[in-house]
Amino acid sequence: MKSDIKAVFTICPFAEHAFFPYWLTLVEDGWFDWVEKGDGVIVQCPNPKGIVAKLYKRKIKNKILVEVEIIDNKGNCNWGWKINDRFFLPPKPNKCSILKTR
């Protein structure tokens, strides 16, 4: 992976809750019929002033990772995520190994 990826040890519980079903589906090599192959699934944080993200399935070194791109911020994300921030979720959902890029 690139050297500009940084480890982040926490993620907003609201965003994690919203991401979880999509994250788990993608890392288990599933897909969503309403999303074109190669495009990302759009997920809204349940906080009305939170983020909107696109989750992409990426195959890196025979592992499936989920890349998250912040595409909108409806107000002021309390966790500091901004539009165009990108990070990778780990191969299996957990709370201690989120990878972030700026």
Write structural notes for this entry.
The chain is α+β, with helices and mostly antiparallel strands and 102 residues long. It has one domain. The protein contains one helix and six strands, in the order E-H-E-E-E-E-E. Strands 1-6-5-4-3-2 form a six-stranded antiparallel sheet, with helices on one face. Strand 2 and strand 3 form a beta hairpin. The radius of gyration is 13 Å and the shape is globular. The two termini are 14 Å apart. 21% of the residues are buried. The C terminus is likely disordered.
| Uncertain residue ranges | 95-102
Task: Specify the number of helices.
Answer: 1
Biggest sheet statistics: 6 strands, antiparallel
Principal-axis shape? globular
Cα distance spanning the termini: 14 Å
Total number of domains:
1
Mean pLDDT across all residues, rounded? 80
Estimate the strand proportion: 35-45%
- Kindly state the percentage of residues in helix: 10-25%
What is the H-and-E element order?
Answer: EHEEEEE
Class based on secondary structure composition and strand pairing? alpha+beta
| Strands side by side in the biggest sheet | 1-6-5-4-3-2
Rg over C-alpha atoms, rounded to the nearest angstrom: 13 Å
Number of strands: 6
